[in-house]
Design brief:
seven-stranded mixed beta sheet; 3 domains; 467 residues; Polyamine Oxidase, Chain A, domain 2; binds flavin-adenine dinucleotide
């Protein structure tokens, strides 16, 4: 009888765990082993509980419209724990020099879909508003440089002008990638925004996507754009861990992937010198990790993987008594235009965004810092966050506690031309046979994108394994 196909999955973050889960649950004849460097599973998904507060240090949710994460959550029996953002607070503020101003209603990823709220908004000057309205008559592709891809910032600016880029779209679109809209690839980060220009005006394109309200019908809050879990993102990791009993090995870093010996296609060598024979190797996690592990096998492939740029993120959580704040936190948070030069680039009002994140009468907020503060000490960051809280939410007392979370090179920043680079990487992987990558560097950066890629890799492995 032929032996089961040996699969080694490198990395026990969401991509690695979802790959292993899809293989195990898929019933194919495979022997799966997940190798994880640290003692903790989950990678970027880190949930911390402190004094009755719940802190998701990295991702706090996934995009609700992308179904793969939700489907996985349900398959793991966590369907009842799914939560939405708090309906009454589904709004976002924008920081100005003097305080916070609500975003105009009807934005689709920062692109205005409604003219009246835009005209009433103090965020743009009359000239800035006129420039946005010019979009209604500009032809498709207006001002576009030749080429398949373009930068997110170039797209928004040529359609809507610089003010709309700086104050409406840029802080959100760049912030989600800890990156700069000046060189993020539109096609690889926000293809849904590129598609808005299909018939010319992106304002009209965005309007076509917004839910229609019958004349006279009461206004309902927008749908929750994100989904999360009552017990935090860590509960997804815990459920995967339970489902993968006996499959995962922790505290076993992989050192390199080599050509196999004794009939195995690959040898996955761990940092303790152990050799794991594999017919299929799935490299998850950041592309710079895959680059380092594959360098001995294929230097050109490693160079391509290493060329994917990464951004780092640092955030501080602050916990307060509601009574110590100067305002009600009636939004999911706020964005900060870069040209204000502030130390903080965005704030999430965690306990107003999600239910169950703070005890009654208390709030939890999180500040994301500008790149120049990445190397600052925890003490400096907490001081900056407290200043920020005094400015944005009128904090009048010391926080009950502060908590700093750092993510070094955790966010890929797909640059213009990313799709062509990934096609080349996939071509080289295919030429080797049995080598796979899955994760936020390749085909969508979010958790649901990682789960989708994991399931695709598992399906391709199952297709060659015996049923
Ligand atoms: C601050 C931040 C906020 C984010 N917010 C969101 C959000 O709200 N929504 C969303 O959808 N996405 C968000 N993301 C993106 C999301 O976190 C990623 O898409 C996803 O977690 C990537 O998972 P992964 O398993 O591919 O990689 P990782 O989470 O990086 O996991 C890689 C794993 O590999 C392990 N490893 C490293 N080296 C080795 C080795 N040599 N051998 C074996 N194992 C190794 C690591 O310890 C880790 O466990 C955010 C990212 C960051 C950084």
């Amino acid at each position: 009888m032929a032996a089961a196909r040996r699969v080694v999955v490198i990395g026990g973050g969401i991509s690695g765990l979802a790959t292993a889960h899809a293989l195990v649950a898929g019933g194919a004849d495979v022997a799966v082993e997940v190798l994880e460097a640290s003692a903790r599973l989950g990678g970027n998904l880190r949930t911390v509980r402190r004094d009755g507060f719940l802190l998701d240090e990295g991702p706090d949710s996934w995009v609700a419209q992308k179904p793969h994460a939700t489907q996985l959550v349900k398959a793991l029996g966590l369907g009842d724990a799914l939560i939405e953002t708090i309906a009454d607070n589904r709004r976002v503020y924008v920081a100005t020099r003097t305080g916070l101003v609500a975003q105009p209603a009807g934005l689709f990823l920062g692109i205005p879909s409604r003219v009246r709220p835009l005209l009433r908004s103090p965020l743009l000057t009359p000239l800035g508003k006129a420039r946005v309205l010019l979009d209604l008559v500009l032809p498709r592709g207006y001002g576009r440089a030749p080429g398949e891809d373009e930068a997110v910032g170039d797209f928004v600016q040529r359609r809507l002008g610089k003010e709309a880029l700086d104050r409406l779209a840029g802080p959100l679109l760049g912030g989600l990638f800890s990156g700069d809209v000046a060189d993020l690839s539109l096609m690889s980060t926000y293809p849904q925004i590129a598609a808005l220009e299909k018939n010319g005006s992106v304002v009209r394109g965005a309007r076509a996507l917004m839910p229609k309200r019958a004349p006279g019908a009461p206004s309902t809050p927008p749908k929750s754009p994100f989904a999360s879990l009552r017990d935090g993102m860590g509960s997804l990791v815990d459920a995967l861990e339970r489902a993968l009993d006996g499959v995962v090995r922790r505290e076993l870093a992989v050192a390199r992937v080599e050509a196999g010996r004794d009939g195995a296609k690959y040898a996955v060598v761990d940092a303790k010198g152990g050799v794991h024979a594999a017919d299929e190797v799935v490299l998850t996690g950041p592309a710079h990790l895959a680059a380092a592990l594959l360098r001995g096998l294929d230097a050109a492939l490693a160079d391509d993987l290493a060329s994917i740029r990464y951004g780092s993120a640092v955030a501080a959580f602050l916990a307060y008594r509601e009574a110590d704040l100067g305002r009600r936190l009636d939004a999911t948070g706020y964005l900060v235009p870069r040209d204000l030069g502030r130390d903080v680039v965005a704030g999430t009002w965690v306990s107003s965004k999600w239910p169950g994140r703070a005890p009654a009468g208390h709030v939890l907020v999180r500040c994301f810092f500008a790149e120049r503060n990445l190397e600052a000490t925890d003490a400096t960051l907490v001081e900056l966050a407290e200043k920020e809280a005094a400015f944005t939410i009128g904090a009048r007392a010391e926080p009950l506690f502060a908590h700093v979370a750092r993510f070094h090179r955790g966010s890929p920043q797909p640059r213009v031309g990313h799709a062509a680079l990934i096609a080349r990487i996939r071509g080289r992987l295919a030429a080797h046979g049995g080598l796979h990558v899955a994760g936020s560097a390749y085909d969508g950066v979010g958790i649901s994108d990682c789960v989708r890629q994991a399931e695709q890799v598992a399906a391709s492995i199952r297709a060659v394994a015996r049923p």
